[in-house]
Amino acid sequence: MKSRYSILIFSLLFFFSSPLLAQVAIxxxxxxxxxxxxxxxxxxxVIRNPGAVADRLVSAASPxxxxxxxxxxMNDNGVMRMREVPAYxxxxxxxxxxxxxxxxxxxxxxKRPFKEGEKVPVKLKFEKAGExxxxxxxxxxxxxxxxAAPSAAHKH
Length: 156
Ligand SMILES: [Cu+2]
Fold this sequence. Notes:
Elements: H1 2-17, E1 25-32, E2 40-49, E3 55-61, E4 65-76, E5 79-85, E6 88-90, E7 94-98, E8 104-110, E9 119-126, E10 130-139, H2 150-153
Parallel strand pairs: 1-10
Antiparallel strand pairs: 1-2, 2-7, 2-8, 3-6, 3-9, 4-5, 4-8, 9-10
The structure holds copper (II) ion (CU).
Copper (II) ion binds next to β8.
């Protein structure tokens, strides 16, 4: 009788510690519309991890681009530069935010322009939570950034 209980308890513990139960939530995924001829696009979101174990976003892919890279912005002597990083760490009971001017997904070699109002599907792969699908809403061109075209900045 006693051993049967311990088997039950053991399997319950195993079940609750299973990586399959690790979960992350993707909040407000969005991407910027692209200018004509643009080859790359930025994607943003908040990754929330309610679990007690830290997780890590290790890869991302989308049918609309050749690949999806993880970028961060670094202040290099007053000049903001982008740098590729291998992964994003999502702390336990915490969140990791991707936003303009900070960490962002970079859609490389996009196959078509991103148009405002459409959705871009992205498959995210986490070390523990596994694959998570997200639909990125395409927002306005140059949202929360200076206008891309010089002519737009010099309207009289
Ligand atoms: Cu970038």
